[in-house]
Amino acid sequence: MGKDTKDLNTQDTPALENRRRFLGRSALLGLAGAGVSMGLAGCKEEAKPAAAGTAAAPAPAHAASSHEVAPGQLDEYYHFSSGGHSGEVRIIGIPSGRELRRIPVFNIDPMVGWGITNESKAIIGTNPDGSLKYNTGDTHHVHGSYKDGTYDGRWLFVNDKIHSRIARIRMDTMEVDKITELPNVMGFHGIFPDKRDPVDEKINYTTRVFCGAEFHCPLPNDGRDLDDPSKWGALFSCVDAETMEVRWQVRVDGNMDLTATSYDGKLVASNQYNTENSAELGGMMASEHDACVFLNVERIEKLVKEGKFTTIGKSKVPVVDGRKAANSDPKTAVTCYVPVGKNPHGVNASPDGKYFVCAGKLSPTSTVIELALVHKWFAGELAKERDAVVAEVELGLGPLHTGFDGKGNAYTSLFLDSQVVKWNIEKAIAFAKGDKTAKYVVDRLDVNYQPGHGFASMGETKEADGKYFNSGNKFSKDRFLPVGPLHPETEQLIDISGEKMKLIADHTAYPEPHDGIIVRRDVVKTRKIYNMDDFPNKVTAETSGIERKGNKVHVRMLSMAPAFSLPIIRVKKGDEVTLTLTNHDKIEDLTHGCAIPNYNINFIVNPQETKSVTFKADKPGAFWLYCTHFCHALHLEMRSRFLVEA
Question: Does domain 532-644 have CATH number 1.10.260.40?
Answer without folding.
Answer: no
